[in-house]
Amino acid sequence: MSQKFICLCCISLFCATTLAQKPPLVEPAYQDVLSGFPNLRDFTISQNEDEAYFTALSPSGELSFIVRIDKHNNTWTKEIASFSGQYTDLEPFLSADGLKLFYASNRPKTVGAPTADMDIWYVTRTSKTSSWSKPINAGPKVNTTDSEFYPAITDSGNLYFTCSKTGSETHDDIYLAEWNGKDYDTPIALGDAVNSKGYEFNAYVSPDESIIIFSGFGRPDGIGLGDLYISQKNENGEWTRAKNLGSEINSDKLDYCPFLNVKTRTLYFTSRRSSVLLKKGGFDSVDSFLTEINKYENGQSRIYKTTLKW
Question: What is the pTM of this model?
Answer without folding.
Answer: 0.89
